[in-house]
Each structure stands twice: as C-alpha cells, then as structure tokens.
Amino acid sequence: MKPTVPGPAAKEPAETSPVAESLATARGLQSGPDLTTSQGVRLPDTDHSLKAGPRGPTLLEDFHLREKITHFDHERIPERVVHARGAGAYGTFTAYGSAASVTSAGFLAEKGRETEVFARFSTVLGSRGSADTVRDVRGFAVKFYTAEGNFDLVGNNMPVFFIQDAIKFPDLIHAAKWHPDREIPQAQTAHDTFWDFVSLHTEATHMVLWAMSDRGIPRSYRTMEGFGVHTFRLVNVDGTSSLVKFHWKPVAGVHSLAWEEAQLTAGFDPDFHRRDLADSIDAGLFFEYELGIQVLPDTDDETFEGIDLLDPTKLVPEELAPVQPVGKLTLNRNPDNFHAETEQIAFHIGNLVPGIEVTNDPLLQGRLFSYLDTQLSRLGGPNFTQLPVNRAHAPVNDNLRDGIHQSVVHQGIAPYLPNSLAGADGPVPAGAQSAEARPGGEAGGGYVNLPEPVDGPKIRANPVSFSDHYSQAALFYASLSPIEQGHVAEAITFELSKLYEQPIRERVLEVLANVDTELTEQVAAGLGLPAPVGKPPAEVTPSPALAQIDGRTWPVAGRIVGVIGTADTDVSTLQRDLKTHGVVVRLIAPTGGDGVERTFQTARSVEFDTVLVTSATTDPRVAVLLQEAYRHAKPIGVSGDGVRTLTAAGIDATAPGILPDPGADQIVTALAAHRVWDRVPLLKPPVS
Ligand code: HDD
C-alpha cells in the first residue's frame, strides 16, 4: 500500500522529452490483452505443462514451458562489483548560467537550460539485497542527457577517497568487502581485513575518518552532499582552462542517522532510503540539490594553497575556495522498472562533453578504464549504450557495428572512415572533420582536447606531496563539531571492537596518534588499550564548512511525525497543518482501525523523526519507542495523558526537546534543527 503522504501531485515527465519518447517506445514494446509467447503466439493456459495424460510425464515439445523456464533462469545479471545496492530517479537539471565563464559545456553554461538526468545513489560494499542504512560511503552518480552527449558525474557523498592510485582499487575492495572464506560480514567495514588494509595503507586515513563520521550513515539521500572527488579541468569557449571540484549541496541540509538508529533500521526497514526516495517522489516531495564548483587556477604545478589537486585524498577547504552554485537538480520521477532502468544504467567517468576534461589524478585515470570494461560483463556486451536508460539524447552515429544484442538496424555499406561511398546526408557519418570542413560549414562543437603538453619518464611513482597522509585527516577531525567528533570516536571504537586480531587494533591506534591525541585516547580507552603517542600535525586551521552540525536550520519536507494515540485520536488538524510543510503524520494505536497507519506491534522509533504522545499506555513497546526517540535526540511532543506514558518510559518531561502540547509550527521548528542537540550531553554513552 502506498503511504498517504502530502504534497503536490508528482510531476509527469514532459511527453515530448527525448527520454520520455525512448521510454514510451520501450514500454510499448509489450502490449495487447492476451498472454503470448515471446514469438507472439497467444496462450490460453500458462498454469499446466503439457503432459502425457494428467498423471503422465511432461513432454519436451512444450515450447511454452521451456521458454518460460529458460527465460526465468536467466533473469538476473551480475551485480555491480561495488555499489551493487542502489536506488535511482529521473530529474531535471537547470543551469544558472554562472558557469559560462569557465566552461563551454552548454548544460552548465546556458542560463535556464534544462537537462534531463538520472541519478543513482548506492552503498559501496553490500550486495544487492543488503540494507540501506549500513555504515558506508554512498555513491552519488548523475547521468546528464545533454544536447552535446551524455555527461556522467560519478561521485560519492564524501569529497576524498581511500587510495591515490586506481591500481590499488582491487586491493581496497578485496579488503573492505566480506572475507572470502565465509562471505561475511555483509555490508560492513567492522572486520579485520578492512582495518588491516587501511592501517597498513595510511593514505586511507583521511577517508576512513569521513566513513566513521556521521556522513557514513545519512538520514536520507535527500540530506547528503555529493562530490566529484577528483579535480576536473573545465575549458571555456575561449579555450581558457580552470581546475574545478564539483559539489552537490542538498537543499534539505546534511543530516544523518544516529548509529544505533542506523543499525535498528537495517533490520526494521532495510529499504529505508530507497523507500524514502520513491515515496517522496510519488508524493511530489522532490529531492533537490544545487550543483556548485570550486574554481581553481590551472597552474603548471596543479596545486592550490599547497594542496596537490591531483591527490584524491585531499580536499580544498571551502573557506579557501568558495563553492559557486551553477545549477539545480530536482529529482522528480521514479523509474517504472527497477531492472530496466536502475539496474541497467551504466555510468562511466569517461562520459564527458566538450568543455569538461579530466586531469592526471591517477585514481581518475584508472577509473577511465574500469567503467566501460565492467559493463561488458555486467550488461553482457558492447551494446548496452542502446538500452533506453543509457541512450544519449544527442544524435548518435558512431560507426560501431554488430555485437551481441545489437538493436539498431544500421543502413548503408560504409561504416568506416575515410570513405567515398556515404553521402554527407547519408546514414553513415561523413567524417570527423572540423567545423569548417563540414558541409555547409555549420558550427562544430565536437570534443577536442585541450592541447596539454605531456612529458615525463616512464615510472611507477607518486609526487612527493602524496606522502602527506595525516594533515587533512587532522583538518577534518578538527573541523567537526564536538558532537560529531564524539561520534567518530564511538564509531571507530565500535568497529575495532569487532576485530579478532589485537595487533590490528594496536596498529590503528598508532595511525590515529598521528591525527589527534584526544581521539586516540578516547578510542584506546574504549578498547581498554594504552594510547600510543604520535605526532599529530602541529597546526591545523579548521574548515567550518566540513561540520554538519553548525546551528543552521533546514526545510523539513519528507520528515515523518508519529502520533501515539488510540484508534479514535483525531490527527486531521495536525495532518493538515504539517502537510503545508511536506511533513507526514502517522497515527500509531494499540490495534488497527480507520486512519491508524501503525500499531504498537508494527511501529518502531526509527521510522519517525518526531514522536507525539497523546494517550496513556504502559505498553512496553511504546516505552521502547519513546526511549529510542529520546536517545536519538529526536523531538518528543506530549499532550493530554501522554505525560503518563512518558513518565512510565522513564523520560524526564522537562528534558530539552520535550515539547508540551506542540502545534505544527513548534514541530517544524524542532525538525528544522534535525535533532535536539542540547539533549546530547545528557545522554550517557554509548548513545549513537
Ligand atoms: Fe567507482 C561504480 C564512485 C573509484 C570502479 N563508482 C561506482 C559507482 C559510483 C562510483 C557512485 C556506482 C555507479 C552506479 O550507480 O552505477 N568510484 C566512485 C568514486 C571513486 C571511485 C567517487 C573515487 C573517487 N571506482 C573507483 C576506482 C575504480 C572504480 C578507482 C577502479 C579502478 N566503480 C568502479 C566499477 C563500477 C564502479 C567497477 C562498479 C559498477 C560500475 O562501475 O558500473 O567500474
């Protein structure tokens, strides 16, 4: 059953858009009132196989049985080797035009230009069927179907990465995924091989702290930042280049789960994030992000303020280079079919359009190989670009031919260049001439690389600057709010507690000692180990933009309020008032009934951002719900006899964030701060 979520009706795709047309064609490929075979033969019976008499053996000649079972046997395709678990949606990117000075890419440069996109969010380590809320990095991949060809921004929700060179990716992933002997643990970094690798491989330290921070457990895809991670090179119409870092800024702010909440949710609703995405879009509560760029001069040494821009373990603090907004993304349409669209979408960091180029970041360079290659085994051959979700909206005429699952019926006889047999207007491209050489001299706009000089000895080595593994790890930790710092210490302690190998714990502590003394001491105390003495970087200037708890408030659309009452509790006024803010109200009662969306048996705190308790009950399940909401620093409203329920649950009605008789406005104000941060100091560890 679809939930009753308020908001404007979900936006239908413009029927004239290229994606709508190609999808409409794809949808129309199967129609008609009768069940048929895949050859179109109508079938009166699909429940009984063809047998020699009712008790006889099944006959091999039953073509319907064989076709049905054979197709079923092959329904699954290999899951992605990383980022297997994900969810996606279509949307529209609208350019502000502010990027025109740095890039010729039309979808960024032309003010007001709208470009269709498909965005896929993912966890990295878990299998396709794993839970959404595990502690992990989140993928944030966006395919822009631009008029100049497809551009893919294949990023994460963290701005740095574990390794500096793509050649180590198989090592990283082999260490981080399950142990190969038993295939456990699923979707977790809390195990020996992960910490073994990252403690031996200290360039991972910065990223490990991000993964252990609240960024590793986002509340929603709606409340995640996204990053292109690498430095890209943008080139404007005059041929002037800049180095650039891409950022997605969520309109709803950055908000995370509490750790205990994340773990409980993995059991109570493993589909938490994908459900939130799909339900919100159905309800017209669209996910919105601004795309921004940090623009840095394209100098010979490719560094900025001493930061090597080719090192993907380093970020550029926003205080040194502000993120300039260049456009807005609104995710507003759910896919119709998970397999056809979300599973078969194929991203590639090398899908670039004129005006956007790559740099020599060695992580990026290796990725340029991996993405196309992986699709060949995942999607079964080289023609995956013809699948509706992967098709470019720009005209395609590529001279690539044949191959498995070829669905284009190519015309003409000369799919090669140069040729003298294909006319300029013919089905085979006339040639890759420059704009001037084209018949009619129409504007060119093809992809031409900036003629960057390339020189150097053949060598397997990194620049010297890549050996600084700790200064930015220390910068990140020092920039977090004290509450977030506490969460990092708790997360690392939790993960290391799960290890079997004591020497690995000790080695991690030695690494941490180079980042921050207090952090090392906290983790060591939690593990009951001595804290080693290291040499944390002497001076770190914090970057406030890296903290997510900073006193700001945010829009609350998509948040959920649970009202504990009885089947007779009238929530219609609250529902009406909160609907204007996009907030959903769900009535929780002892048993089902008209308007009751959850019973005491089916409700659990993790589903609600705020709980309002309106009636008296001593049901222990309600007490647990309230205690969890309290521990997770959620606002709790109390009215009528609800105060007795609160007291029975052992909660102090005068504690911060306990709201007496709250109206819609108070609830919205409390939700806008994400959590009741004032309550956190009262909560004895471990709380989250
Ligand atoms: Fe990757 C998938 C992001 C490094 C190899 N990667 C994949 C996805 C995301 C990222 C979001 C999922 C795309 C989707 O939704 O289909 N990957 C990153 C980021 C990286 C990164 C931000 C570092 C900055 N990746 C990376 C390296 C390699 C790969 C260094 C290999 C050398 N990534 C892959 C892959 C995947 C993939 C094997 C698996 C499925 C796919 O590509 O289509 O090619």
Automatic annotation (TrEMBL):
The active site is at H83, N156. Its EC number is 1.11.1.6. It is an enzyme of class 1 (oxidoreductase). Keywords: Heme, Hydrogen peroxide, Iron, Metal-binding, Oxidoreductase, Peroxidase. Signal peptide: none annotated. SMART domains: Catalase. Heme binds at R80, R120, F169, R367, Y371, R378. One of its GO terms (cellular component) is cytosol. Transmembrane segments: none annotated. Residues 36-425 form the Catalase core domain. Residues 1-56 are annotated as: Disordered. GO terms for biological process: hydrogen peroxide catabolic process; response to oxidative stress. Gene3D superfamilies: 1.20.1370.20, 3.40.50.880, Catalase core domain. Decomposes hydrogen peroxide into water and oxygen; serves to protect cells from the toxic effects of hydrogen peroxide. Belongs to the catalase family. HPII subfamily. This is Catalase.
